[in-house]
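so im writing up the methods section and need the Ninjurin 2 record in one place, dumping it here so i stop losing it
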Amino acid sequence: VTTGISILYIGTLNINKEKHCNRANILNNLITVQIFLISVINIVISAFGIEQVNLHNADVLKQKEAREASRLISANHTVMVFNDSKL
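--- predicted struct ---
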């Protein structure tokens, strides 16, 4: 938000005036740093792939798997249990 406001403000400055030129130069450097930081943060977020985890659904799935394994054991079936549910 501050970057956008800064970009809008720098557009109103007249760089032909000495007073505005110095202010525009400082603001331009500030905007450059802000955009760089935003880019770095976006790269870090993309690299680690932030996902929303629904723990309730995972618990329900584990409970269903446990009930099914218990049912198979009581019916004298061989049961293979894997830690990774993707298998």
